[in-house]
Give the backbone structure.
Amino acid sequence: MTGDAAADSGRGEGTPLDDRAAGIEELRQRIEATREELGQTVHALATKTDVKARAQHKVVAAAHEVHEKATEATADLQEAAAGIWHRVEERIPEPVRDVAGTAKSQVADTTAAVAGKVQKKTPPAVRDKAQTVADTVRRYFPEIVLASTLGMLVLSIRLIRRAVSS
């Protein structure tokens, strides 16, 4: 054996020393993969046991669903009201419609003038609070309309029952 052949036989591919190094590296990779898998499992278990977060998620989802249904119901009510108004409007004589149109524009002008005066005399803190309330009403308008409609429906049913039972 020459010097090169002796060097190759001790450190070449497929030697026990290389096999051990490859085995150690493979073990390290498996350990890292197991750690990653364990971390994911712990995270999944923590998510499942976080009852508060799950409940909040369900509440948000339910609120979103209620908002969508209220918006749809509001649109349906507005469409029905527009249809009713159209039928009523067809039966109103032309002179009455003209007088009503004139009165409407006068009321709008007067309302705008009064609103301007009120706004000038209202303190900024009160205006800010009123703006907050107005924004809230705009945000929850479909729910407010739906609740009002349901309230009127319940009241109507009670009044009808009282009238029938009397």
Q: What stands out?
A: Confidence is low (pLDDT under 50) at residues 1-12. The chain has three domains: 17-49, 62-91+122-165, 93-121.
